[in-house]
Amino acid sequence: MDRPEEVFNLHKDDDSEYMKADREFFRQNPDKEFYVRKRFAGEMIEGNPPNVVVQQVAEGFRMRFPCSKDSITDRDIAEITKELQDRRKLATFERMITRKGKLKKSKKINKGFGKI
User: Fold this and answer.
1) Does the structure show a pLDDT above 70 at 102?
2) Domain segments of the chain: what residues?
3) Measured between alpha carbons, how far is 80 from 26 in angstroms, rounded to an integer?
4) Strand intervals (E) in 1-116
5) What is the pLDDT of residue 82?
6) Residue 4 has what pLDDT?
7) Which 8-state DSSP code applies to residue 59?
């Protein structure tokens, strides 16, 4: 079975050069949810793209996605933003479905309006 970090491309902080750069970016820009940067030489991203989209999920946890474009336009940023928002909505929906079977059912019984 896949581990959650493999399924969602989630990466925990370590002392690698690119993780330090990502950590520093989000420390200096706490209002940002993601940024696009050049891929570091030792960074293993599928397809070895020139750029990487890094999304902060929680402090110390980020998701990295390949970005094959050499230059990023404002339109690209808008598309990336929408894609990341859609991924977040999908992940929330998947968690809701997964947990639904584990939730306890309410014991409240609808008794109607009573006698008329």
Assistant:
1) no
2) 4-100
3) 17
4) 10-12, 34-38, 51-58, 61-67
5) 84
6) 39
7) T
